[in-house]
Amino acid sequence: MVRSVWVNGQRIVYPPINEVLAQKAAQQRRAARATPHQGPTGLAAVNLTVQSVMASIHPEHIEEVNYADCNDMSVNKVNGNNAVFVTLKAGVMFQAGVGSFVIDAPDSPRGGRRALAVNATDDDGKILPYRNRIVGLFDETTGDPIMGAEVADSASGTFALTTATGTVSLAFLPDGLSTIRIRKAGYVELRTPIVISPRDTVPLTLTLSRVK
Fold it and tell me: Residue 166: pLDDT band by 50, 70, 90 thresholds?
C-alpha cells in the first residue's frame, strides 16, 4: 500500500484531508469488506493523506513522479518506501492546505493564486517561519474547533481549509496587510484584516457565530 508522499524532498505530514476523497475511501473500505479474499485494490490501497496531497497538486506543475515500493531501499529515510515522490517544476512550490502554486510570476495559472513575495523563502527554498502565521477558528457558542472552514484572501481568492483542530496556516497570503474572508456552511461569514510580517507572528484566534 502507498503510505507516504514526498514533495520536493519533504515528506508531507498531516495535510488537510480532502472531504470528497474521504467519502469515496469510506465507500471503498465497505466494498473491500464484502470481498476480504481480494484485499484493497485501486485507490483503496492508497493512503488518504497521499490522495489528498496529490489531488491538490496541479498536473502541469509536476516535473516527475516516482514510486518506491516496500522492497525499494534507495531512499534512506523513515517512510522512504511504500511512498510517492513528487518533483515540481522550477518556480513551483507546495504548501499543505493550499496545494501547488507558481512563485516566480505575479499570479499562478489557476484559481487566482498570488505568488509569494520574493523574500518569502530562505536560501534553501523553504518558506520563512513568519509566513506560517496560524489562525484558529472556533464556534462562538460551544468553543469547539471548526473544521473545513474556507479561509480565503479576499483579494486573490486563494484559500485553505481549517483542519480538525480548527487551525490553518496563512502561508498563502502575501507579505503586508490582507483581508481574509472566512466561510463555513451554517455560520455567518466573517472578514477581518491580518498582517503577515516578521513582526506579526502571534497566532490569531477567531470565532464564528451560527446562522439564526
Answer: very high
**Helices 48-55 and 19-34, packing angle to 10 deg:** 140
- One-letter identity of residue 202: V
- In the chain, what are the domain boundaries? 4-89, 93-212
Q: Exposed/middle/buried for 175, CB within 10 Å: 0-12, 13-18, 19+?
A: middle
The pTM for the full model equals 0.45
- What is the dotted CATH code of the domain comprising 93-212? 2.60.40.1120
The CA-CA-CA angle for residues 154, 158, 161, to 5°, reads 100
- How are beta strands 150-153 and 176-183 bridged, if at all? antiparallel
**Range name among 47-56, 103-112, 122-131, 174-183 with the lowest pLDDT average:** 103-112
